[in-house]
Structure formats: structure tokens, C-alpha cells
Amino acid sequence: MKIWLARALVDRQFYLSRYQDVALAGVDPVAHFAEYGFRTPMRSPSHRFEKALLAGSALLVAVSILFGVVRPDFLDLLREHIITLQGRGRKLRPFLYLMVFRIYAAMQAAEVGQPLTIARIYADAPYAEARRIIAPEGDFAFTDPDVILSEQAARHRTVKRPSLWCATIDQA
Question: Which residues are bridge partners to 140 per DSSP?
Fold first, then answer.
């Protein structure tokens, strides 16, 4: 059944040009898609299928959320779709897709283990004589990233950077 479906979906030329690893391995694109196409990251069998995936990416994400499945590739499709729509001048409601990203982040956070406790390390601590300066203090200049749906230009900033140091702490 899988190979029959793959034969119907796969455009051999598109698949081999899109996925160089398959072309270099000399693997049959239909057999490869039948075996690996729907695994993470999902591979598109044809240009038409890829357009349909992008158009239906919001539905894919919604269904995966309903079933509690975390598929970063579905979220990547939604991001790409949003960026494409913005490039066409469409105004989108940021609340909707920000909500989706937050739900996904919460689902992924449930899979993360417990963090270690934080130990405060500071320059004038008792072990200060055991520390060595790696880089002196100075200025750090950067440009803010562009914000989706914002019309404000990215700002250039400069902040003071403290010295970078390391210390050997006995019985840590």
C-alpha cells in the first residue's frame, strides 16, 4: 500500500533535485519516499504536494496539537507559510500564530528534564583569587532582530559587557 501511494505522489525529478542525499545515494525516490517520506522531517514528494502542505500547514499544526504530537517540521511549514503570506503583503493576526507557537513550546517543554539548581558565582566571592580573566570588560554592539509584522526598523545598540572570567571552585 505504501509503495502504491508513493508511486502516485512522487515526482522523481523534483524529489531527486530537492533531496540531494537521495540523489547521491542512488536510491529510488519512490522507494525512499515510501519508507522515509512521512518521518520527521517530512519530505515533499512533488511541487504540487509541497504547495498543498504549505497551504494546509495551519491545519497540520492544529491536528498535531489536538493529538499531542510534537512535530517541529509542521511548525516550520507554518512559519514558512506565514513568511510567504507576509511577502505578498497580507496582514495577519499575530495573536493566532503566536498562540500556536506558545502551545507548541509548552508541549516541547513537557519533554525537558528538571533543571539543576542555580549557584550564584560572582567576581568578589571567596574564590576570587582562583579566577582568571579571559576577556576584559568592554562594549558589545549588535542590531535588534527584525520583528514579524512590525514596521519599526531594527535598532543598533551598544551595551557594556562585563569581563569574562573563569574560576576553579573546589568541592563544587
Answer: 159
Rounded to an integer, what distance in angstroms lies between the CA atom of residue 34 and that of residue 6? 5
Among 110-119, 126-135, 156-165, which stretch is predicted with the lowest mean pLDDT? 110-119
What grid cell was written down for 114?
528538571
Identify whether the C-beta of residue 42 lies closer than 8 Å to the C-beta of residue 33.
no
Q: Count of alpha carbons within 13 Å of 18, Cβ hemisphere only?
A: 16
List the beta bridge partners of residue 116.
none
- The 10s digit of each residue's pLDDT in 127-142 is 656 677 888 899 989 8
User: pLDDT, tens digit, for every residue of 1-51?
Assistant: 488 999 999 999 999 999 988 988 899 999 999 999 888 888 999 999 999
Query: Residues for the chain: how many in total?
Result: 172
**Residue at 9: amino acid letter:** L
| Nearest residue to 11 via CA among 49, 40, 41, 39 | 49
**Residue 51: burial class (beta carbons within 10 Å; 0-12, 13-18, 19+):** exposed
What's the predicted TM-score (pTM) here? 0.55
Give counts: helices (H), strands (E), the chain: 8, 4
